[in-house]
Amino acid sequence: MTQQxxxxxxxxxxxxxxxxxxxxxxxxxxxxxxxARFKGDDSIIFAEYLLILTVIFYLIQLAFIRQIKYLLxxxxxxxTMLTSIILGLGVMTILAIExxxxxxxxxxxxxxxxxxxxFSLFILTFLTKxxxxxxxxxxxxx
Length: 142
What we know:
The chain is mostly helical. The chain has helices at residues 3-35, 41-64, 70-95, 101-138. The chain is elongated and about 50 Å long. The model is unreliable at 134-142 (pLDDT under 50).
């Protein structure tokens, strides 16, 4: 695949990921009470759904770029989850939000999605840059 095709596939996968997260967030904000049985279950169950969605997102990215290490694929979703929790708590503290379940879910999904997009763009930039250097070294004319 050429770099343009990889970037186009990444942009499509990121767009689809954002649309699915938005749809999931809207659905979960309106229907979390059907699934949550205990206090705090609403956020934990939503985070589990986002984690599964993120692993699928990175598997799709793995299909486009074969250089992604499997260990990176397993570490990045958990790292983004922890980063999102810390950033989300920071946002709620700075903005003095009341922490109702709906607000918590909305803020967490926004922060989580942005964090995943930034990490995937970092992976795209890092890996395509390395691939470009390998191609240039392979086809160098003496």
